[in-house]
Amino acid sequence: MNDGRVQMYVNNTASMLKANNGIPLTSFYLIYLISYCSKYISILEWNKEIEDIDFNDLKLELINKVNRELFSNWEIQTGYFYQLVYWIKKNPPIETEEDILGSIYLKYAETAQRKKMGEHYTRMDLVDYILNEMDICKAEYHRMIDPACGSGNFIIGFLRRILYRNSSKTKTIMLVDNLLKENKIVGIDIQYIPCLIAKVRIIME
């Protein structure tokens, strides 16, 4: 991770999560996604003063505007919700090509647990090298299956090649939508949080 801003953000975020051990990681990543998406789409409830945000109204808006699957079953204690919203609004997402969300998870997770589960994520520069060597996006309808996807670096690398190759935004959206709906892009992992991170990153792309 060469970007000093990214490393500082990762360290500060992991420290915040460790200091507030009861905060559910799921809610952190979903609120991070909300903050990121709010730069590109109007999320009315998110734009209110923190104390005026109604969680249930925000959740309904996110189900309709961002992603039904991720937000339909989202539950969080009120105290944690406002604490996370306050922190994210003070520390908004950084625009970067690096896997900042996966790095936060690895920094936060216990080393012994990571070794036990075999959690080691391939750096994006190595992912790019491998995908370039394989010329994986030469054909338009490749099937991408990552049986140990972690935070989704190979999936994101594959998607970026599709996004950058097509100049037509409409065509790109339709292509990516079809690839996901037809299970032509599949990521599998035994850990829930890394799978959530991968889904969040796909939406952010």
What does this structure look like?
This protein is mostly helical and 205 residues long. Helix content is 60%, strand content 3%. The protein contains eleven helices and two strands. It has helices at 4-19, 25-37, 55-65, 68-72, 78-90, 100-108, 111-117, 124-134, 153-165, 169-181, 192-204, and strands at residues 144-146, 185-187. It has a two-stranded parallel ribbon with strand order 1-2. α1 (4-19) packs across α6, α2 (25-37) packs parallel to α11 (192-204) and α8 (124-134) packs across α9. The chain is globular and about 50 Å long. The relative contact order is 0.13. The model has no long low-confidence stretch (mean pLDDT 85).
Layout of strands and helices, then pairs:
Elements: H1 4-19, H2 25-37, H3 55-65, H4 68-72, H5 78-90, H6 100-108, H7 111-117, H8 124-134, E1 144-146, H9 153-165, H10 169-181, E2 185-187, H11 192-204
Parallel strand pairs: 1-2
Helix pairs in contact: 1-6, 2-5, 2-11, 8-9
Task: Provide the descriptors you would attach to this structure in a database record.
11 helices, 2 strands, mainly alpha, 60% helix, 205 residues, two-stranded parallel sheet
